């Protein structure tokens, strides 16, 4: 059992599903899709069970792939990777279930692609995303990182509202531009490692490499730009709202909750892992960008009239928090960021899906035209409220803990950084509650009838997310157990130890007090 | 003066002789066989000839002797005029595979309702009675012409001296000029393209010839090895050398379609019969890059500080002009032509990434290896893409205007998907061959310190992605206007569909497991001086 290549199987399973599904018709394709994604989730849970909590890369597999380039097919899982894999594996069946009817109904009189294609592309996206989170070879990572864009492009372009093909093109152009900038960095790494003796792309070899300061900084910049576009971070976020505004809610979940995580995942694993010196060098600028993203994202979200755009833009603010937590370099910040990545995935997915239910009932995403849902569709309203409260960081729901950790870390870094970050919480309360107020309360429109409340399938799709939000809100220990050793390893690699708690009392008094204990 | 009979190394150069011999046989067949039988015989001759040559190339490649402490393999034959070394054999194999795919496309007769895509009688005036009479006729001279062009393509990268290189250049070019003018439909466009190609090509040959004379004046020899020795000894009057090299480059850069000598590319690609475009775009590029590499690395390798900056400028201009002009095209064939110009730029990026073998780490990718691999990936994608262009037709023949392609993905999902796949490979999206090729050429340029070129190359790639993806969007997501005529896919015979399948397979396999071919390119070793 030890030699069983479980990670390769985990990546291959949804891929096989994606190749088989196109040959099935209608409902059978959807059932097969859910079957495959649930099996993948089960396999991911098995991986989690085999994972030992003391950190480091585990369950590693390494095969030579392109010897001429020093490229290996190398997979491995660490605490960060494990959480991302579980998140991805959980969200895909949820999305497939929630999007069951998505492809059948024409939106705005606009013909949708075939449901088979939706399932197939979703599974392909899942497989590639899993590979991204498991790759321990930079070249392999780059390949799958770029390849995820193809299914994403077809998911955006083929399904959703009018104007989606333009949105898909914009999305792809932004992402590929980032990817090609990253290509410079990937090529640069090859050159650096070839100069050091023998070219290799293995993460472990690269981390051991002693990269010259200036070269390291240039390479860091290429990696960071690519991940900032992916995440997204101000000022390269403009594709985000256009995309989530046009794509189906399911696609938006996959994009924002899974694909965008690759950005912050990459910052942790590659920026900090390979270029520790350059990461610290860039910290001031990155923190400014993160703070701008937090505040600007929240303000723009407040001003939105389109629910789906609003939710997309809240993520800009959230990714600001995640990046902030990563670059303040402390245990609380790092753990908080990783938890944030998971919790944001759960909370935003729930928000997207429930809002999507609402939009598909009313046929419009304009907040101005919605309203008065609460009285007639209480379940829908309740779920929207829970998802919204999770997003704004209400204590008792899991995003609170991660947001709290990041803000503590921000205050430790510098009080003004913490102060700016805190405004994000206030603004989040405004955009969530105001959105809820305008869509759910007020006079009920005539078109809304009581039988429009959520069906069993729709509730079942969101239920796991809400359950996880509540569970991890009260008991975040499992997440922390996975994240903590990883963050500890990473920070010691970067060369940072947490500051000891500062003692403000005069030195003399301190020694005197010590005597008493 | 005593005459010594030159000894030919038949064991090494026989694939070349087979191709030329079959071309001559083709002419005899054309002269003596009745018209009805010619098509089958000519196709069989060409296909068998190319296959035998391909097998021969593989055999020759496996039996080459190592020289220069294993850094290179092969020998200089034909009294110094033909060099059969590792890179030669690799390029021969590429040319022959591309030619085989080309022959299959030439032989396709189902698309034009039972006749080939070539004019029945090229000499007949468009619109005249003579042309109408020739309408049902089939043109079979194209096969010997193709074989001669292939012969030239094989000789071109194997030339050991400038004179042979010039002869090969003409042997490969003249048949192509003719083939360009033979389209059955849109005769005027085709003839115009042929004339342009011929005039500009003849002009550039003149440059090449003048360059040869100046280099001869400098080095006292046409031999690439002797030129190399002269450059190393730093013989006097290097101005003559530099002007000579510049003029030689004009001739070669014209053939590969580099800026500022790219102007013929879109017109010729558009006007030529699509089968010819497919064959020519791949074959010429492979052969001409082979020759360019040999000229620069062998003849002027010691003088690379002179030509590398020139190549920087040419590569940067070629990439930028190629992608910017491709963005504004509204015709598929012209778009692919400008994309071919951009690919020339990417290949030049690899060419200028040459480093002395001592500067490279053990197992690091060499520029020769990278360029040869890129040529392989590009050939599969471009031949496949043009083969698909020949299938997409409306009432007036091939429909190359963009608006005809709208919604093709809904009408013919398989063909559109294959075309999208080729475009993605050309755009260099991972998991396709094009990505690995791009990675290789960019890496060697970066290793050689040409980072500004690489940055421009990346920027051009972003532009390139835009027009490739825009076309994918057109096929899959755009809805044609209600009353507009749209193109549909005509079912081809196995010849074209097989070619497309080979293209798809090659692009896929080289994208997923590029290791073996890269290793083969590495094993080919260096050029023999």
From TrEMBL, chain A:
The keyword Chaperone does not apply. The chain crosses the membrane at residues 6-24, 31-51, 71-97, 118-135, 141-159, 171-198, 218-241, 253-275, 281-303, 310-331, 337-359, 379-401, 413-434, 455-477. It is found in: Membrane. GO terms for molecular function: NADH dehydrogenase (ubiquinone) activity; NADH dehydrogenase activity; ubiquinone binding. One of its GO terms (biological process) is ATP synthesis coupled electron transport. The keyword Amino-acid biosynthesis does not apply. Residues 135-427 form the NADH:quinone oxidoreductase/Mrp antiporter transmembrane domain. It is a multi-pass membrane protein. Coiled coil: none annotated. Keywords: Membrane, Transmembrane, Transmembrane helix. One of its GO terms (cellular component) is membrane. NCBIfam families: NDH_I_M, PRK05846.1-4. PANTHER family: NADH-UBIQUINONE OXIDOREDUCTASE CHAIN 4. Belongs to the complex I subunit 4 family. This is Unannotated protein.
From TrEMBL, chain B:
HAMAP family: NDH1_NuoN_1 (MF_00445). Keywords: Membrane, Transmembrane, Transmembrane helix. InterPro entries: NADH-Q_OxRdtase_suN/2 (IPR010096), ND/Mrp_TM (IPR001750). GO terms for molecular function: NADH dehydrogenase (ubiquinone) activity. The chain crosses the membrane at residues 13-33, 40-60, 89-107, 142-159, 165-183, 195-219, 239-264, 276-297, 309-328, 335-356, 368-392, 413-436, 448-469. GO terms for cellular component: membrane. Pfam families: Proton_antipo_M (PF00361). Its main location: membrane. The keyword Transcription regulation does not apply. Residues 159-462 form the NADH:quinone oxidoreductase/Mrp antiporter transmembrane domain. It is a multi-pass membrane protein. This is Unannotated protein. It is found in: Membrane. One of its GO terms (biological process) is ATP synthesis coupled electron transport.
């Amino acid at each position: 059992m030890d030699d069983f290549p479980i990670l390769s199987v985990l990546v291959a399973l949804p891929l096989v599903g994606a190749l088989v599904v196109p040959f099935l018709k209608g409902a059978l394709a959807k059932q097969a899709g859910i079957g495959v994604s649930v099996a993948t989730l089960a396999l991911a849970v098995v991986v989690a069970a085999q994972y030992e909590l003391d950190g480091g890369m585990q369950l590693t597999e390494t095969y030579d792939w392109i010897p001429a380039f020093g490229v290996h097919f190398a997979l491995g899982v660490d605490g960060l990777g494990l959480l991302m894999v579980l998140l991805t594996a959980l969200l895909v069946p949820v999305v497939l279930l929630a999007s069951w009817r998505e492809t059948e109904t024409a939106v705005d009189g606009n013909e949708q692609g075939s449901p088979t294609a939706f399932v197939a592309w979703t599974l392909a996206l899942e497989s590639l995303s899993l590979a991204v989170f498991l790759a321990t070879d930079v070249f392999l990572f780059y390949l799958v990182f770029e390849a995820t864009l193809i299914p994403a492009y077809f998911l955006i372009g083929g399904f959703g509202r009018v104007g989606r093909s333009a949105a898909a093109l914009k999305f792809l152009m932004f992402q590929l531009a980032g990817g090609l900038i990253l290509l410079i960095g990937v090529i640069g790494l090859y050159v650096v490692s070839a100069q050091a003796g023998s070219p290799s792309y293995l993460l472990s070899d690269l981390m051991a490499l002693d990269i010259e300061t200036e070269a390291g900084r240039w390479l860091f910049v290429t990696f960071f730009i690519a991940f900032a576009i992916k995440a997204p971070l101000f000022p390269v976020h403009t594709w985000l709202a256009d995309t989530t505004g046009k794509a189906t809610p399911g696609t938006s979940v996959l994009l924002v909750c899974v694909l965008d995580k690759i950005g912050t995942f990459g910052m942790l694993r590659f920026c900090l892992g390979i270029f520790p010196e350059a990461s610290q060098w860039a910290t001031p600028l990155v923190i400014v960008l993160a703070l701008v993203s937090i505040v600007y994202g929240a303000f723009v979200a407040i001003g939105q009239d389109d629910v789906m755009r609003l939710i997309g833009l809240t993520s800009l603010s959230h990714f600001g928090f995640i990046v902030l937590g990563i670059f303040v370099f402390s245990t609380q910040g790092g753990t908080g960021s990783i938890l944030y990545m998971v919790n944001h995935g759960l909370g935003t997915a729930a928000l997207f899906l429930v809002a999507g239910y609402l939009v598909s009932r009313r046929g419009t995403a304009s907040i101005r035209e919605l309203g008065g849902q609460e009285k007639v569709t209480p379940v829908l309203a309740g779920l929207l409220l829970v998802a919204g409260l999770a997003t704004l960081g209400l204590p008792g729901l899991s995003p609170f803990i991660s947001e709290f950790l990041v803000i503590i870390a921000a205050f430790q870094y510098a009080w003004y950084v913490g102060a700016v970050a805190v405004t994000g919480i206030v603004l989040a309360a405004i955009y969530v509650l105001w959105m809820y107020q305008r869509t759910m309360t007020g006079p009920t429109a005539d078109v809304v009838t009581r039988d429009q409340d959520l069906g069993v399938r729709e509730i079942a799709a969101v239920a796991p997310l809400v359950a996880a939000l509540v569970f991890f809100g009260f008991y975040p220990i499992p997440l922390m157990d996975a994240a903590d050793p990883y963050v500890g390893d990473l920070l010691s690699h970067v060369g940072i130890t947490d500051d000891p708690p500062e003692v403000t009392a005069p030195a003399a008094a301190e020694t005197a007090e010590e005597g008493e204990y | 003066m005593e005459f010594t009979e030159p000894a030919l190394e038949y064991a090494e150069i026989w694939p070349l002789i087979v191709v030329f011999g079959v071309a001559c046989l083709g002419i005899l067949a054309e002269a003596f066989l009745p018209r009805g039988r010619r098509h089958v015989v000519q196709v069989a001759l060409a296909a068998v000839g190319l296959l035998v040559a391909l097998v021969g190339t593989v055999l020759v490649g496996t039996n080459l002797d190592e020289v220069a402490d294993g850094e290179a393999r092969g020998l200089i034959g034909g009294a110094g005029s033909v060099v059969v070394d590792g890179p030669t054999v690799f390029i021969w194999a590429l040319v022959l595979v591309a030619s085989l795919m080309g022959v299959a496309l030439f032989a396709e007769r189902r698309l034009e309702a039972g006749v080939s895509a070539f004019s029945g009688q090229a000499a007949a005036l468009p619109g005249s009675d003579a042309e109408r009479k020739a309408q049902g006729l089939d043109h079979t001279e194209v096969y010997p012409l193709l074989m001669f062009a292939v012969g030239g393509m094989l000789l071109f990268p194997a030339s050991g001296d400038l004179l042979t290189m010039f002869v090969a250049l003409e042997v490969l070019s003249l048949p192509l000029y003719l083939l360009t003018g033979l389209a059955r439909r849109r005769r005027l466009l085709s003839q115009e393209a042929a004339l342009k190609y011929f005039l500009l090509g003849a002009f550039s040959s003149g440059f090449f010839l003048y360059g040869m004379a100046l280099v001869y004046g400098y080095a006292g020899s046409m031999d690439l090895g002797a030129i190399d020795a002269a450059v190393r000894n730093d013989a006097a009057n290097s101005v003559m050398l530099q002007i000579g090299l510049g003029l030689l480059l004009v001739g070669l850069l014209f053939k590969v379609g580099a800026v500022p000598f790219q102007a013929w590319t879109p017109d010729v690609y558009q006007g030529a019969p699509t089968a010819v475009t497919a064959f020519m775009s791949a074959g010429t590029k492979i052969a001409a890059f082979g020759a360019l590499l040999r000229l620069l690395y062998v003849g002027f390798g010691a003088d690379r500080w002179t030509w590398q900056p020139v190549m920087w400028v040419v590569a940067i201009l070629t990439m930028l002009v190629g992608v910017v002009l491709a963005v504004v095209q509204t015709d598929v064939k012209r778009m692919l032509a400008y994309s071919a110009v951009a690919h020339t730029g990417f290949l030049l990026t690899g060419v200028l990434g040459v480093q002395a073998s001592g500067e490279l780490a053990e197992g690091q990718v060499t520029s020769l290896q990278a360029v040869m691999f890129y040529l392989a990936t590009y050939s599969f994608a471009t031949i496949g893409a043009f083969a698909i262009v020949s299938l997409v037709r409306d009432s007036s023949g091939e429909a190359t205007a963009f608006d005809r392609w709208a919604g093709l993905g809904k009408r013919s999902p398989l063909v559109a998907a294959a075309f999208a796949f080729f475009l993605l490979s050309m755009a260099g999206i991972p998991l396709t061959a094009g990505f690995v090729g791009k990675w290789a050429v960019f890496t060697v340029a970066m290793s050689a310190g040409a980072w500004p070129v690489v940055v421009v190359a990346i920027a051009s790639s972003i532009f390139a992605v835009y027009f490739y993806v825009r076309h994918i969007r057109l096929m899959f997501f755009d809805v044609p206007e209600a009353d507009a005529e749209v193109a549909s896919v005509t079912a081809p015979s196995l010849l074209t569909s097989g070619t497309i399948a080979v293209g798809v397979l090659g692009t896929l396999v080289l994208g997923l497991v590029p290791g073996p071919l890269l290793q083969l390119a590495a094993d080919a070793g260096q050029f023999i001086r």
